[in-house]
Amino acid sequence: MKKNYFRLIIAAFIIGSSSIIYSCSEDEETITEIVTTGIAQDPDNFKGEVTSGQVVTLDPLKSYQLTGTVIIKNGGTLVIPAGIKITATAGHLSYILVEQGGKIYVNGTAGSPVVFTSETTETGNWGGIVICGKAPINTGSSGSSEIANSIYGGTEATDNSGSLTFVRIEYAGAEFSAGKKFNGLSLFGIGNTTKVESVALLNTADDGIEIYGGTVNVSNIVSVGNTNHAFSYKDGWVGNASNIYTKRKTDGTGNTGITGINNASNDNASPRSNPTIKNVTFIGANSGESDGIKLKQGTYAVLDNIVFSNWSKGVTIESDSTVARFNGKKRITNLLFENTTTEVSLKSSAGSPVTIIDTTYTKKPDATGAGNGILVPSWATGWSGL
Question: Using CA atoms, how far apart are residues 300 and 285, in angstroms rounded to an integer?
Answer without folding.
Answer: 27
